[in-house]
Amino acid sequence: MAEPVILPIAERREPRPVLGYAMVMTAATLWAVNGTVSKVILTTGLSSLRLAQVRSTGAFLLIALALAAVRPETLRLRRRELPYFILFGVGGLALVQWFYFLAIHRLEIGIALLIQYLAPVLVALWARYVLHEPVRKRIWVALALALTGLALVVEIWSGLSLNTAGVAASLGAAGSYALYILLAEQRIGERDPISLVCMGFLFASILWAVLRPWWSFPVHVVGEDVSLHGHFSSVHLPVWSLMAWMILLGTIVPFALLVASLRYISATRAGIVAMVEPVAGTIVAWAWLGESLSGVQLVGALVVLAAIFLAQSAR
Predict the structure, then answer these.
(1) Cα 132 to Cα 254: distance, rounded to the nearest angstrom
(2) Dist. CA 5–CA 26, nearest whole Å
(3) Residue closest to 289 by CA, chosen among 242, 243, 228, 247
(4) Contact between residue 76 and residue 195 where contact means Cβ atoms under 8 Å apart
(5) What is the pLDDT along the chain (315 residues), one digit of tens a residue?
(6) Minimal CA–CA distance to 146: which of 17, 33, 29, 312?
(7) Whose CA is closest to 65, among 219, 243, 229, 247?
(8) Where are the domains of the chain?
(9) Is the dihedral of CA 213, 216, 222, 225 positive or negative?
(10) Are 279 and 300 in contact (CB under 8 A)?
């Protein structure tokens, strides 16, 4: 049988950018909430690697069960796809989660996200100088504006003593996130977003199972109650319920939305729009944990939104 003709990435997109932007912004908001949820789980003493293992494996099992029930044919994995999915699952999905959890365990969530969101710059550089795609000057201005706005949101000048390991982990998350977006864009015309994410989580789960066998998992932690801290410190929930939120609304839904958005907008634009995550994360931390929200931070949030609008206008 002849190989299918694969169109260039730009020709595989449908002209519905508003839907693409809405998908990315929803994903970024869910990730922002998930940052605080994950930080609460980490207070139980569960390691960053174990939390990444729970997130990946739980996401894979739920998606695989759903697909097996309604669209089992999408679970077929061809031999020629193996190298791609190993790189996508390990280098993209697995490492971006692990590096992120390592970072927020050592840094404030806003600072960790600010460094992680160097990823859109890496995506734009790759598109321009490796793929030789045209990247308009307005996109570069939007990237600069977005990073400036994020710096205002996290008030990076306020005498921070940054943990070296946390900074290194955030940079690792930036590289893995950029790799994830670029690889997802490459395959979005061949596979639907749900099966694409499912196969990625399969190989991420295999990696964690090898590094940390499940029989050594501290099962007792799952049944413990943990305080939600901040304004909700009097509220205690079982760890398993927070893990369920993390897997479903903090992982499956946002990752699928981001991949699906690449049908309608480019990886560079998706990366810029996703920069609302640190802004949303700061707002969540203010509403949940009682962290202050200054006028400068609000200005930074407006600058990020202006950058997103500028990127969208670069037809």
Answers:
(1) 29
(2) 33
(3) 228
(4) no
(5) 333 333 344 444 556 778 888 898 899 899 888 888 888 888 888 888 888 899 899 999 998 998 898 888 888 888 888 989 999 999 888 888 888 878 877 777 767 777 787 777 777 777 777 777 776 777 777 777 777 877 776 666 665 556 778 778 888 888 898 888 888 877 776 778 788 888 889 999 999 999 889 888 888 888 888 888 777 878 889 999 999 999 999 888 888 888 888 888 877 778 777 877 877 877 787 778 776 666 776 777 777 777 766 766 655
(6) 312
(7) 247
(8) 14-313
(9) negative
(10) yes
Residue 235 sits at φ, ψ, to 5 deg, of -90, 130
The region, left, alpha or beta by phi > 0 then psi within -120 to 50, assigned to residue 290 is left
The angle that helices 137-154 and 109-116 make with each other, rounded to 10 degrees, is 160
| Rounded CA separation 261/51 (Å) | 27
As a whole number of angstroms, the distance between CA 30 and CA 245 comes to 10
Kind and range of the H or E run holding 238: strand 236-238
Cα–Cα distance for residue pair 118/178, rounded to 1 Å: 9
- Enter the tokens of residue 309: 């609008």
Nearest-CA neighbor of 32 among 117, 143, 151, 89? 117
First-to-last C-alpha distance (Å) of the chain: 39
Q: What burial class does residue 212 get, using C-beta atoms within 10 Å of its C-beta: 0-12 exposed, 13-18 middle, 19+ buried?
A: middle
**Helices 95-106, 164-187: inter-axial angle, 10-degree rounding:** 150
For 227, the 3-state DSSP assignment is strand
Q: How far apart are CA 122 and CA 142, in angstroms?
A: 14
